[in-house]
Design goal:
Layout (H helix, E strand, L loop, with lengths): L1 H29 L6 H18 L8 E8 L3 E12 L3 E8 L13 E7 L4 E7 L2 E2 L17 H19 E3 L16
Antiparallel strand pairs: 1-2, 1-7, 2-3, 3-4, 4-5, 5-6
Length: about 190
């Protein structure tokens, strides 16, 4: 009997000592997700700068094709297409064109962007078949989006555009041996 009472006292003292830790854990679990607005705005500004390097004449050109070196796939064709122009915004699609010799099991990214010229920002508004992305989602949800799905897509777009700037080549260059890299036009 004495050992049982002694065990209860030991367990009670361990719980009492760990109570602050347990409270912190409960607060972390209950903490609601908040959007990192400053980080998202910075990413959108950087994406605007990248887009303007790839398509500086966006106000007059409807489409631009260029090639990008991808590991294992060689040179793939990327297309930037202007869908709609307004006074302060432009809607564009950026997609990797499917080539006949590339197997169709691999997904090719297709971004729809809204470019805000007055704010100098570009944000992803759709990715592949996913339309009308919200700034944040409850988790879990029916589509299994991450809580910060839109931020992740804007970061992915930034990485993808950076890769295009670093390894991109202008297609249709009359001198095939002297292929120009897009990064050379800074």
């Amino acid at each position: 009997m004495a050992t049982k009472a002694n065990n209860v006292r030991v367990i009670a003292s361990v719980c009492e000592r760990n109570r602050p830790i347990l409270r912190k854990c409960r607060n972390v679990i209950k903490k609601k997700y908040s959007v990192d607005l400053a980080g998202q705005l910075a990413e959108c500004e950087a994406n605007y700068a990248r887009i303007m390097k790839l398509l500086p004449d966006m106000d007059s050109v409807d489409q631009r094709d260029f090639g990008v070196e991808l590991t294992g796939a060689g040179l793939v064709q990327i297309r930037i297409e202007v869908k709609e122009r307004c006074k302060y915004t432009t809607m564009i699609d950026i997609s990797q064109q499917v080539q006949s010799d590339v197997s169709l099991w691999a997904s090719t990214p297709c971004f729809s962007l809204r470019v805000y010229h007055d704010a100098r920002m570009a944000e992803v508004i759709a990715f592949d078949q996913h339309q009308r992305l919200r700034p944040s989602y409850d988790y879990p949800n029916a589509n299994m989006y991450h809580r910060d799905e839109k931020i992740q897509l804007n970061i992915y777009l930034g990485e993808w555009l950076s890769h295009c700037l670093e390894f991109g080549r202008i297609l249709g260059n009359p001198v095939a041996k002297n292929v120009c890299f897009l990064a050379d036009f800074d």
